[in-house]
Amino acid sequence: MTARPSCDRDELADLIAEIALVRGQVTLSSGATSDHYFDLRCVSLHPRGFELVGQVIWEETRDWQYDAVAGLVLGAVPLALATMSAAQASGQHLPAAAIRKESKKHGLGKRVEGADLRDKQVLIVEDTSTTGASTLDAIKAVQDEGANVAGVVLLVDRGGADPIAAAGVPVRSVFTASELLAK
Description:
This protein is an alpha/beta fold.
C-alpha cells in the first residue's frame, strides 16, 4: 500500500470557506443567533472534502491513543467515517460509531450504532460546536456504553472547546470560526 500524501489543511480551509460558509442571520442549535453558519455537511459529503476531513482529523490525533471513532448523528457521522477511511488507508483498523440524540424507540433501542464501544478508547468528532452541549451529551452516551473518551476533535470551533475542556476531556480544534471568517 502506498502512503497517502500528508493532509492539506489549507485546502480544507479553502473548501470550507468556499462551499460551507453561509453569511446571513441564522439560529444555531444552541438557540443563539449568528450572522454566519458553517454548513459543514457540504464539505464532509463532498468527495474531496470527505478525503481532506479524514486526513486532517487522522493527522491531528495521531499522538492520541484510541481504537474507535464516533460522531453525533447527522453532522459528525461523515467525519467519523472519513477518519475511519483515512486510518484504513494508513493501515490502521479503526471502527466507527454513530451516536443518536436519544435511543431508538423500536428495533434494538440503541443510542449508539455501529462499532461496539465497550472497553474501548473512543475519539469523538464533531463538525462544529458553539456551546459544547451536544458534544458533552455525546461524551456521556459513549461513557454509558462502557467506553472511555480519549478526546474530542472539533472541525470548526465556535466556542465549544472551552466547556469540553472544562469537563476534563482533551479537545482539539482543527479550525476556529474566526480563522475561517478571515479567509
